[in-house]
Specification:
By secondary structure, the protein is of the alpha+beta class. It has nine helices and eleven strands. The strands form three sheets. Strands 6-5-4-1-7 form a five-stranded antiparallel β-sheet. Strands 8-9-11-10 form a four-stranded mixed β-sheet, with helices on one face. The longest helix has 23 residues. The N and C termini lie far apart (46 Å).
Length: 331
């Protein structure tokens, strides 16, 4: 009885501490699950539609407490959303002289998740180089014969200075011309398919494209024994066949690859934010993130239902692929 009383007091104190937090509103980017409690194991109360405005009453760990029609529900704070606030507070936040976040340096941050990732990226020296603008100061030719192309500046980069051309040459050596920031290593077919997946993200889901670009530095074709994401090195090793599996269309194959890149980038973002990158917690969060990306990339994709089945069975030991041996229990 005494323990029950203590537990009840703890819950009351938790809710009171959450309730005392400053309230604000957010606008969600995609269809988002609202749960009965702050856990992925908790029941889904409602799926709020993309574009909905939600009132945040507080938070606990990585979860936001939402007032939804007079009832308390919880939303994971790693999903895509935009904070609704006045321009004065935004200007004040960006005017700080104590720069400790990439959001002050090289990127546009709209959500709390963006700012969290920006902070950890700054701590790890991961702020990207600001985009360069074309000027009249260029000291290099604009065109070149395709047989002698060895620089991204010849094939689309806006290069204005000698430093730009040096960066363009170095980027060309690591296949970064088309998608700056990510080096692609492997067969021509592998590189083409990864570029197609990144193209799809950029064209259909710019937010998730940015998410991948900020999460992965290298994608490398590798043998099966070393596949996986190396969160500390921001490297994704992938055992990959150049051709889609039999019966799988090109669009479906590319959609799967695009969602896979979001999933693996999620592990890196969690690691850099000080969260558990793998295991049940990490994989559950990243499968849910993958589903949210799929709903934007291709709302009619069969991969959405497949990933939902994965998430529904992820608590079963025989379905936990990260241990190396598991049964196929999602079909």
């Amino acid at each position: 009885m005494y323990r029950k009383i203590l537990a009840s007091i703890a819950v009351i104190l938790l809710l009171q501490s959450v309730a005392l937090a400053q309230t604000y509103s957010i606008r969600i980017t995609n269809n988002t699950n609202l749960r009965a409690w702050y856990s992925l194991d908790s029941a889904i109360v409602e799926t709020a539609p993309a574009g909905a405005t939600l009132d945040v009453m507080g938070s606990h760990n990585r979860w936001l407490r939402i007032d939804r029609k007079g009832k308390d529900v919880w939303m994971a704070d790693w999903v895509a959303y935009t904070r609704v606030e006045d321009s004065a507070s935004t200007t004040q936040a960006q005017a700080t002289s104590n720069i400790n976040n990439c959001c002050f340096v090289d990127r546009q941050c709209q959500t709390d998740q963006d700012w969290t990732e920006g902070y950890w990226a700054f701590q790890n020296g991961r702020c990207a180089v600001p985009a360069r603008m074309q000027t009249q100061a260029s000291t290099q030719p604009v065109n070149a014969d395709t047989a002698t192309v060895d620089n991204c500046c010849f094939i689309g980069w806006q290069c204005a200075t000698d430093d730009d051309w040096l960066n363009g040459f170095q980027a060309y050596q690591t296949n970064q011309c088309k998608h700056p920031g990510i080096a692609l290593e492997g067969s021509p077919g592998f590189i083409l398919q990864m570029e197609n997946a990144l193209d799809m993200l950029r064209d259909r889901a710019p937010h998730w494209y940015d998410y991948v670009i900020r999460g992965l530095d290298r994608i490398r074709q590798a043998p099966p024994e070393v596949i996986g994401v190396h969160v500390g090195g921001r490297l994704f090793d992938l055992d990959y066949s150049d051709d889609p599996p039999p019966g799988v269309s090109y669009d479906s194959h590319t959609t799967h690859d695009a969602a896979m890149l979001v999933h693996e980038a999620c592990h890196v973002h969690r690691y850099e934010a000080g969260l558990e990158p793998g295991g049940l917690a990490g994989e559950s969060a990243c499968v849910e993130t993958e589903i949210q990306a799929l709903e934007v990339i291709n709302p009619n994709s069969g991969w959405i239902q497949y990933s939902r089945r994965v998430l529904a069975n992820i608590h079963r030991p025989e379905c936990q692929w990260w241990w190396g041996e598991y049964k196929t229990c999602y079909d």
